[in-house]
Design goal:
This protein has helices at about 5-25, 30-35, 40-50, 75-90, 105, 110-125, 135-145, 175-180, 180-185, and strands at about 150-155, 160-165. By secondary structure, the chain is mostly helical. It folds into 2 domains: about 5-50; about 70-185, no CATH class. The chain has a two-stranded antiparallel ribbon with strand order 1-2. The longest helix is centred in the first third of the chain and has 21 residues, at about 5-25.
Length: about 190
């Protein structure tokens, strides 16, 4: 095997991952961070493979990526969806085993990016009418890995994984336990 064969395989993996990110409507900066491709190369991939060859258009979002952790804790449904997504991310190895100080810089990479796509696709199959976008998913894993604003905890009744605001005193039950008589009365 020649050295160039390895390089071709790595480049092909980067392009494939970038295309998956594009299909999930990731912003150019997010794709660049996770794949290492240039902005120009990402735009060319979009034009060549998505815009020209597909009848279903993929939206290209502009501007800054989401950065508000309250998005995931604002309603019981969002807390539930965030917990489902976080659980899948932990199961597929997207989340690091320990907290990471600069998660936005240390998490991105090819292997974790592929696992992130798998986790997001699984989340979309598990949740009817999902509300968390791919960009929000990227922010969620970075926020949980860092642990400054959000953290993963366990429901005090069933021990299921939940996503909680690090500074909030309430919200230590999952959606299922909040609605059950046992969860309401603490039996």
């Amino acid at each position: 095997m020649r050295i160039s064969d390895d390089r071709y395989s790595r480049d092909r993996q980067r392009f494939d991952l970038a295309l998956r990110f594009i299909h999930h409507e990731a912003r150019t900066r997010t794709i660049r961070t996770w794949t290492g491709l240039t902005d120009d190369r990402i735009r060319k991939l979009y034009r060549s493979y998505i815009a020209a060859g597909s009848s279903a258009k993929v939206a290209r979002h502009r501007g800054k990526s989401p950065r508000q952790s309250a998005y995931f804790t604002r309603s019981p449904r969002m807390r539930h969806e965030a917990a489902v997504l976080a659980s899948v991310c932990y199961l597929l190895g997207v989340m690091p085993a320990t907290q990471v100080a600069d998660a936005a810089r240390h998490l991105p990479g090819m292997q974790r990016g592929e696992a992130l796509c798998e986790a997001f696709e699984t989340y979309r199959r598990l949740v009817p009418e999902p509300r968390i976008s791919f960009e929000h998913a990227v922010f969620l894993i970075a926020a949980l890995a860092c642990g400054d604003e959000l953290r993963a905890a366990h429901c005090i009744d069933c021990n299921g994984l939940i996503v909680v605001d690090r500074l909030a005193m309430n919200g230590r039950r999952c959606l299922a336990c909040e609605g059950s008589p046992q969860g309401k009365f603490g039996f």
